[in-house]
């Protein structure tokens, strides 16, 4: 399956494409629908669970703006998969021109995606993926979650691999692609090392969820019984930091933390020495998603998968870039 890897330049390029309306042509020459040049798009967002999600929502709203030729119908499902499916069904009933989804969980999408197909409304996935057959959506743009997990795991293996290390994991939303794939990648990277996963539980990608789960781990094992935390996102890592400090521990020293996202608050904690390593997950997917909608409505062939390019940061590397990052 073809996939395209995006660099920052390419994503900026797509901004130029979308802004000048040369993302393709149809009867009105700019990918517009029948409603006089404006494309009506329903966007089903997961909710507002994390700093990453806020940056992603901002990117999507900026890209699907009136200035760029869109009429955006936005829904945030508060991390409720049933509510998100109902939102997509509502978009179909409204007769939107295209639907964009950041699916909370991978499973349960077949029926409503078939209904969109029967209504001849193309679906673009952004951020997370679904387990449905890929003929039920036109394209997906997002980050390589398995690779993110592998990068985090490789750092852990390089740092602790030869030493007996007690690991606890703060998992993302159960059933979500990032939680599933980051776990797969991380576990493959630490295989054969002396890192032992003693516990793992979902904190739902939220700061409060990460704090509560970490409080439970600390009650169970004590500060001295845990050496390393792998948090599936920065918000849960930040919650874990609060719990560790409340228990009298020093995060980043007594208990090391590796996380994923690289949102500003996470990067600040990395600079402050409370997190030890962060793998980026770029949330700025709006321009590419908007370009995909225009191309699909223009019956242009598009790559089924487009990956954003992610990097990773040590504490020193974070200090150099913190003030210049876009999110
Ligand atoms: C990853 C995204 C995840 C982030 C979390 O692309 O789906 O959801 O890692 C967010 O911060 O809540």
Could you say how many structural domains there are in total?
2
Reading side by side through the largest sheet, how are the strands ordered? 1-12-6-5-4-2-3
Q: What ions, cofactors and ligands are bound?
A: beta-D-galactofuranose
Give the ordered list of helices and strands.
Answer: EHEHEHEHEEHEHEHEHEHEHEEH
Alpha carbon gyration radius: 21 Å
What oligomeric state do these chains adopt?
single chain
CATH topology assignment of the largest domain: Rossmann fold
Question: Helix fraction?
Answer: 40-55%
**CATH class descriptor name of the largest domain:** Alpha Beta
- Mean pLDDT across the residues is 92
Note the overall shape: elongated
Number of strands: 13
Write the CATH homologous superfamily of the largest domain: Response regulator
Distance between the termini: 31 Å
What portion of residues belong to β-strands?
A: 15-25%
**Number of H- or I-type helical stretches:** 11
**Main beta sheet:** 7 strands, parallel
Looking at the overall shape, the CATH architecture of the largest domain is: 3-Layer(aba) Sandwich
In short:
It is elongated and about 65 Å long. The protein folds into two domains: 148 residues, Rossmann fold (3-Layer(aba) Sandwich), CATH 3.40.50.2300; 136 residues, Response regulator (Rossmann fold). The relative contact order is 0.16.
Topology:
Blueprint: E1 3-6, H1 8-19, E2 39-45, H2 51-63, E3 70-76, H3 81-94, E4 98-101, H4 110-118, E5 123-126, E6 139-142, H5 145-160, E7 165-171, H6 177-190, E8 195-202, H7 207-221, E9 228-231, H8 234-246, E10 256-261, H9 264-271, E11 277-280, H10 286-297, E12 305-308, E13 312-313, H11 315-321
Parallel strand pairs: 1-12, 2-3, 2-4, 4-5, 5-6, 6-12, 7-8, 7-9, 9-10, 10-11
Antiparallel strand pairs: 11-13
Helix pairs in contact: 1-10, 2-10, 5-6, 7-8, 9-11
The site of beta-D-galactofuranose (GZL) has 15 residues, from α2 and β10.
